[in-house]
Design brief:
five-stranded mixed β-sheet, about 425 residues, eight-stranded mixed β-sheet, alpha+beta
Length: about 425
């Protein structure tokens, strides 16, 4: 029986990774424009980091993490998201001692034991940003603007920003009690998951895909009607900043996000043409997370984007540019001596930054010329017995079919002058 990739994972062959590289290059360009630097963290961490950072009652922790004991008996978990890891690195390297706003971005694999479906995998690639050190509402608007600019430059224009505030440790407990009081005599109307969430984290009830709309019709209390003065002021300023730079948004009181560390601003960006599964970006503020993980009270905000889903969207919408095919110099060599010379010329061309190939399959001249055509070679260099005797080679322009004789030791200089790229 053949061994295949584990369920929920996939291979990316060279022609597919070309699309990834286009997306990654655009992401790096936007991150640089906004002053974000790349951070790379381990793919597995102490399980305790995610229990404390994400929240023990979240679906991610209770249902989706890949957790194992290492040889020392320590519980380790493949990272299901990267914010907690970035915060751990921020603390471990004592970056909180620098009085400035820290801007990080990352791209890399995450792991969740989820039901595989289009654009969603058990090993998936996530791009995300974290901006740590400032509570200013302008920071919230800045990272939302950053995500919008990325999507727009990729060609996604039919975007809708869903925006909410989930309060803070001052006003959220009051709201939490209002939710419990509201549902006290209505639990029989909730699904099994919501009854469980009501015990552990009542705000998550609003995020229910099954009963969320029904709750709104029931008149469930809204967090935005129960914010403290500071949270209300912060939320209004975020909206004002977004309006000032022309980013449209819809207030969504059901939006609470799936991780416990969020405070104040929570947001999702939807791309309407995707229909029901339209979320392409999600994030929010996490002013209590760094303290929860063991550091000093430090505000932060971030977002994450699933790159497989984004690539699938770009492909479906015909927004991925064609991959530019590199055209080699193909050296046709006839006989062992010519082949040895071709090998040396190939290396000399590569050391000058010129893409070059020789035949590695022992093909005839006709077969080698077919290979050159298949690779869309810009030039073909032909070396046979006659060429070796006269210390020359025939160089053929494959587009014009023009062919000239060039000294063997002048091939590299000729290509430096004539090859396009």
């Amino acid at each position: 029986m053949a061994i295949t990739a584990p369920r929920g994972t996939q291979d990316f062959l060279p022609e597919q990774t070309a699309d990834w590289q286009i997306l990654e290059a655009k992401i790096r360009q936007i991150c640089s424009l906004y002053g974000f630097g790349e951070i790379r963290t381990p793919m597995f961490e102490s399980t305790e980091l995610f229990l404390r950072g994400i929240g023990e009652t979240t679906d991610v922790v209770t249902k989706e993490m890949y957790t194992f004991n290492d040889r020392g008996g320590r519980s380790m978990t493949l990272r299901p998201e990267n914010t907690a890891s970035v915060v751990r690195a921020f603390l471990e390297h004592k970056l909180y001692g620098e009085q400035k706003v820290h801007k990080f971005y990352y791209m890399g694999p995450m792991f969740r034991h989820d039901r595989p479906q289009a654009g969603r995998y058990r090993q998936f690639t996530q791009f995300g940003v974290e901006e740590i050190g400032s509570k200013d509402p302008a920071v919230d608007a800045e990272i939302i603007a950053m995500a919008f600019q990325l999507f727009r430059e990729l060609g996604l224009t039919d975007l809708v920003l869903h925006l909410n505030s989930v309060g803070c440790p001052k006003c959220r407990p009051v709201y939490r009690q209002k939710l419990l009081d509201f549902f006290a005599d209505k639990r029989d109307q909730l699904c099994e998951d919501c009854n469980e969430r009501l015990e552990k984290n009542p705000l998550r009830v609003l995020d229910c895909k099954e009963d969320g709309e029904k709750m709104m019709q029931m008149g469930v209390p809204l967090i935005t009607d129960n914010l403290c003065d500071d949270c209300r002021d912060h939320f209004q300023k975020v909206q004002a900043y977004l309006t000032s730079i022309g980013i449209p948004f819809e207030l969504d009181p059901r939006l609470v996000r799936g991780l416990d560390y969020y405070t104040n601003t929570a947001f999702e960006i939807m791309y309407a043409p995707l229909g029901a599964q339209s979320t392409v970006c999600g994030g929010g503020r996490y002013d209590g997370l760094i303290e929860e993980v063991g550091g000093p009270s430090t505000p932060g905000i971030g977002f994450a984007i699933g790159m497989e889903r984004l690539l699938l969207t770009l492909k479906e919408q015909g927004l991925l540019p064609p991959v530019e095919k590199k055209q080699p110099v193909f050296i046709v060599a006839l006989g062992d001596e010519a082949r040895a010379k071709a090998f040396c010329i190939q290396q000399a061309l590569r050391e000058k930054g010129i893409y070059a190939e020789i035949d590695l399959m022992g093909r005839s001249m006709k077969g080698q010329m077919k290979s050159a055509n298949k690779m869309d070679a810009e030039y073909t260099v032909i070396i046979g017995e006659d060429e070796l005797a006269s210390h020359t080679a025939q160089i053929r322009n494959m587009a014009t079919k023009e062919q000239i004789s060039v000294p063997l030791d002048g091939i590299v200089a000729y290509m430096e002058t004539h090859k396009k790229g």
